[in-house]
Amino acid sequence: MRKKTVYWLLAVGCWLLAACTSGVENPIKVDSLPAIYPDYVGVTIPVEIAPLNFNSTDPEIDAMDVVVRGSKGGELHLQGDEADFDITDWHELTQQNKGGELTFTVCTRKNGQWQQYKDFTVSVSLYALDEWGLTYRRIAPGYEVFSKMGLYQRDLSCFDEYPIIENTQVPGMCVNCHSARQTDPSQFVFHVRGDHGATMFQTDGQREWLKASNDQLGGSMVYPYWHPSGQYCAFSTNQTRQGFHVAPNERIEVFDLSSDVFVYHPATHEIIKDSLLSTKDWSENSPVFSPDGKTLYYMTCKQQDYPMHYKDEKYNLCKIAFDPETGRYGEQVDTIFNAVAMGKSLTWPRPSYDGKYILFTLMDYGYFSIWHEESNQWLLDLQTGEVRELKEINSERADSYHNWNINSHWIVFTSRRDDGLYSRLYLASVDEQGRFSKPFLLPQRHPKEYYEESIFSFNVPDFTKSKVEFNAYEAGREIVSDKRIGTKVSSPAK
User: Fold this and answer.
1) Is 75 buried (19+), middle (13-18) or exposed (0-12) by CB count in 10 A?
2) Does the pLDDT at position 433 exceed 50?
3) What are 209's strand-pairing partners?
4) Which residues form the signal peptide (predicted)?
5) β 184-193/36-37 pair status
6) Domains located in the chain, CATH noted
């Protein structure tokens, strides 16, 4: 009996040694969490996410030793210059610990001496990601001249990134405003600016290039959002201008001399307008459909004298009924969130696909939130009417453009919280009560190197349930050809 007890104690002792200090000799215990980049301490992740590789923020360390233990079993151990996990091993560990936790033990060696920090945990969510990856635009944060930029997609289970289309396809081209139907890229749209302007629609691999502007609209088709049926796509048409601040903490301001909202019917190339959505004294903008397709949400503000009174440009959230059977709008507009009464402006409304919420950005004025440090994320509960600031995911710098995944348990959004200059992508989970987890930075294979050396900002992110199949070479030839399909405008009777 005594011999068995000795063996058991030896086994436990060996396990503890392996779990806490494997490959580490006589570490000094430090009563603080490790200083790592990115900050993954206490975040919640989906099973399918790429490894949470990280670096020490101390440039003088000689080595890092990391042990990850699953609350439901499994362990990873590595030692090197950074935490660089094997993708297959990582996914085996997250799958084994779905609904549990991963505990990280981090040691660093400096001047030959190991230090062991307090453990931290990462929760592995029960909610599946249900998406292949992300799409986004990547662009240098310039103002009037842009260098290499384009639309890209990223496999969220690993670190692979693929271009959808880049401006190297057509010199001087800018691409923006991309959107898929409820994260399904079989129906995909984006806008092309420049000498060969167009609005591209792709359905099941077949592309159409629409004229970039329609004289009856007075502008182009921008800020698209698909109807859940795929039979319609909502747009706004904007006469956009930009100005530049002289204040050190403010850089650029975007405002519209005018803007209207409409719905486009791809099958007939028909633009469906309505006088309620195209008013003289108000700017309607950024339309989105409800998940059942029977409501069109959009933001609107009183038209101002620009650029003199740009700080008076403040938007509310409105809605109007929409009948997908007839393509007709309702007879009245309702304001469902009055941001102006708070002295604020609302932008980028995005309904969750389960119909529970609308996620939006709130700022002091305007709608182009990416350069507004005060911009934050807010949530409207459509069942109770309650509106609250999402303090659990907001930062002191610009938190902006966002989208939901298809099961409405994950969001992706842009934030400048990292350095105040570049907008980067963060993900967070949402539980059944509408509570959000601590956001985490989009993982990269070598995160410190990647983000320090990148000169690009990420914006307009969205989830995609599969890889976007797009022939960029053929698309480039089609753009240069200037062969375009015209659109027609109609105003259906009530």
Assistant:
1) middle
2) yes
3) 200
4) 1-24
5) unpaired
6) 19-124 (2.60.40), 133-481 (2.120.10.30)
Please give the Cα distance from 433 to 419 (Å, whole number): 32
Sign of CA pseudo-dihedral 336, 332, 238, 149: positive
Amino acid (one-letter) located at 43: V
Q: What is the dihedral of CA 377, 382, 383, 385, to 10 degrees?
A: 70
- 420 in the Ramachandran plot: left (φ > 0), alpha (ψ -120 to 50) or beta? left
Judge contact between 141 and 370, C-beta under 8 A.
no
Q: How far apart are CA 366 and CA 310, in angstroms?
A: 7
Tokens encoding 236: 């706004």
Copy the structure tokens of residue 41.
Answer: 């301490």
pLDDT tens digit string along 342-369? 999 999 999 999 999 999 999 999 877 6
The CA-to-CA distance between both ends of the chain, in Å, stands at 89
Structure tokens at 289: 């459909």
Phi and psi torsions of 190, nearest 5°: -155, 165
Give the number of residues written for the chain. Answer: 494
For residue 305, pLDDT over 80 is answered with: no
* 168 phi and psi angles, rounded to 5 deg: -70, -15
Which residue is it, tokens 């430090």?
30
Q: What whole-number distance in Å separates Cα of residue 261 and Cα of residue 145?
A: 28
Please tell me the pTM assigned to this model: 0.91
Residue 472 has φ and ψ, to the nearest 5°, of -65, -35
Spatial separation of the C-alpha atoms in residues 184 and 176, rounded to whole Å: 18
Backbone angles phi, psi at 476, to 5 degrees: -60, -40
Rg (CA), the chain: 25
Give the span between the Cα atoms of 334 and 320, in whole angstroms: 7
